[in-house]
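Input:
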Amino acid sequence: MVNVKVEFLGGLDAIFEKQRVHKVTVDKEDPVTVGDLIEHIVSTMIKNPNDVCIFIEEDSIRPGIITLINDTDWELEGEKDYVLEDGDIVSFTSTLHGG
Amino acid sequence: MSDHQSRSIESELEALRLENAQLREQLASRKDITQDYPLSLEEYQRYGRQMIVEETGGVAGQVKLKNAKILVVGAGGLGCPALPYLAGAGVGRIGIVDNDVVETSNLHRQVLHNSERVGMLKCESASQSITKLNPHVNVVTYPVRLNSSNAFGIFEGYDYILDCTDSPLTRYLISDVAVNLGITVVSASGLGTEGQLTILNFNNMGPCYRCFYPTPPPPNAVTSCQEGGVIGPCIGLVGTMMAVETLKLILGIYTNENFKPFLMLYSGFPQQSLRTFKMRGRKDNCLCCGENRTITREAIEKGEINYELFCGSRNYNVCQPDERLSVSEFQDLYKGDGCLENSYIIDVRPSHHYEISHFSETINIPVKKLRDMNGDIKKLQEKLPTVGKDSNIVVLCRYGNDSQVATRLLKDKFGFSKVRDVRGGYFKYIDDIDQTIPKY
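Output:
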């Protein structure tokens, strides 16, 4: 089990009842990875099934969304395999295009 | 000669007069100067407050700024604050690419333009404003839409590019062209109350746009300022940050040793915050800046890189012609005296749009809510108790795009047979039929 903070930025909060910051407990035997967290988000936090495609595309985070683990690009941290620790902050931010 | 042209000539004349007066003044005060200074006395005065900030490197730094050539693509919400700060700081040459004209709906955030310049090219309006601010700057305007065939010709000769554009397509193009020409890009974007900023292809060693985003977002996930709205000072702050980054690049604050790829995220609401995320470096497998490059200058200029196809576009045209009403047909059938019986007008805009202005005889069911009813007529009847399968339903939205999506939902998912949308939507109705209704 792990307790983390999850943030939905760049407009992604729209599919999480307009709430940007969530305290999340992933109740699973250790080790809990970011991949487990994403499954948890999809299965329990996205209330409207029509919204899943805004977050996930072909089993992965949708292109255009940047995932950060403790303010660092998840590519530098092992992506889905990163093992979460209590107090970690995982942020998802949609890329903006307006100018 | 148009009003705009004559106004533009007038303001050019005014700028030249100012410059002339300044030059005379300088000449007069130079008579007893024996030492050769790298800047005019007026320039020492003008830039004094920034030259005495030690980080700029004083006169040497000011000379770097004077010799710098910066290209700003887009004179909108980001370009408007970035341009005057660069001009004010004394950047020697500033190029501005934009083929849009100033519209009233731009002015809440694009504060370099003004109400008198509605209809004028944005690059021309921006050029006039920054020339007035600092006549020492050599401003070059490019009233064209950037594309694969003109980008190289425009970019060549510039030291840094500022990407102040508003679509994934131009963002990929700017990054690709800059990588091929070895130019560093300051790239930013904004929407709503948030903005993002990064530096791409730093010194030909930093990551490019494709390293961050090898796959473009699906077109339906791309929202424009027109569609999603934007708070002026929020995007303005991000444009101002672009100017800061550009000055740092020119002054050599970033080096190959200290530069770390980053993405900054500014949020204006509810509490203002600025986060800096540590980002991936250049990717070996990047098609543009990696080891086996396929996105070369030749491929781009020959049109082999199809940016339109790569980024895709939304297909709104999901209705047949006979499923659509023109605004005048809509006026005759539903707004006149002989209104059809058993008919309903559903306005599918988001509720906060609907609140700005709407027809009193409509009901607001945003297209997202309609979709979430999953074709269950009982759920629709909670909003429209008397609606039935034989009802006449007209769907209305802002421009006539979402209303087509809603028409498909009502016919294909709910099973209504008599559904039509209004071509061009509420705004087309305002333009053609009743211009007294507020348009936003």
